[in-house]
Design brief:
21% strand, 10 helices, seven-stranded mixed beta sheet, Metallo-beta-lactamase, Chain A, RibonucZ/Hydroxyglut_hydro, alpha/beta, 13 strands, DUF4336, four-stranded mixed beta sheet, globular, Nuclear protein Qri2/Nse4
Length: 270
């Protein structure tokens, strides 16, 4: 199934880009359900201690491995940002066995059910019960705010790298089309009937009405009160840039975009 989602030779199409002296992204094509062009993105953050934190890792290509080495090669944390973004966790854990794995409620059990993903120990697993008491390490906690949105259908982990005022998230919010992630493929990131429809549903342009509706009626429908609380907490953080897993990076003005997309939830929380 993985072969239908990710490119067979990611080295040829991945875009590795340094956003700040501390943050590098690895962007590649990704097809949801084997059809929707939503792209995929991993983010590597170098902490002040020199340790690297990797969020939603993409394929560990030779180019990515070289990037990690240039950033110090000290991978200390590998995070699966939700119940779905874990495909390459095992590959990275094998390459960096000293790294601590971060995940969400139910993900370790899900991975153990498949021979392809079994065998990795998660050191930190967020649940609705422990989310307010969760602490990682002093070096990590000094630089990151984080919130577990277990009320989201995909059980989202959202991080904010405080020194670079950068929000890092997976499926909490999309910013389609995925121009950067398909830029080396020669493919139009908006081509295909289903992709065109999904781009309309998951973009941040204008009033972002369709994405607002999707988040309100689908993503948060299980426990909207808890979702509203999480959104309000995230909105209280100081960030300007948003790095989504799907779609283009919002380089600046991200706080306003976040408030726009989650406007209904923020208003409901008041």
């Amino acid at each position: 199934m993985t072969s239908k989602l990710v490119p067979s030779d990611p080295s040829k199409v991945m875009v590795i880009r340094q956003l700040t002296p501390n943050i590098t992204t690895c962007s590649a094509p990704f097809l949801r359900f084997g059809r929707l062009k939503i792209g995929g993105r991993g983010t590597i953050v170098r902490l002040q201690s020199g340790a690297l934190a990797v969020f939603s890792p993409t394929a560990l290509t030779p180019e990515v491995r070289s990037t990690v080495e240039k950033m110090g090669n000290n991978v200390g944390y590998i995070a699966a940002l939700d119940f779905e973004h874990h495909i390459f966790i095992g590959e990275w854990a094998k390459a960096f066995p000293a790294a601590k794995l971060l995940g969400v409620d139910g993900l370790p059990e899900k991975r153990e059910k498949s021979r392809e993903t079994a065998g990795n120990k998660f050191h930190y697993v967020w649940t609705q019960k422990n989310k307010n008491d969760m602490k990682i390490d002093p070096e990590f906690d000094r630089e990151f705010d984080y919130e577990y949105v277990g009320s989201h259908t995909n059980k989202e982990l959202v991080f904010c790298h405080k020194p670079d005022r950068t929000l890092i998230e997976a499926d909490m919010m999309f910013n389609l089309p995925a121009h950067e992630q398909f830029s080396r493929t020669g493919d139009d990131p908006t081509s295909g009937v289903l992709t065109k429809l999904f781009v309309r549903l998951q973009n941040t342009a204008g009033a972002a009405t369709w994405q607002k509706r999707f988040v309100w009626y689908v993503a948060s429908s299980g426990d909207r009160k808890a979702f509203n609380q999480s959104v309000a907490k995230i909105a209280s953080w100081d960030f300007d840039r948003i790095i989504p897993c799907h779609g283009d990076v919002i380089e600046t003005g991200g706080k306003g975009v976040f408030q726009k997309v989650f406007e209904w939830h923020l208003n409901a929380h008041k």
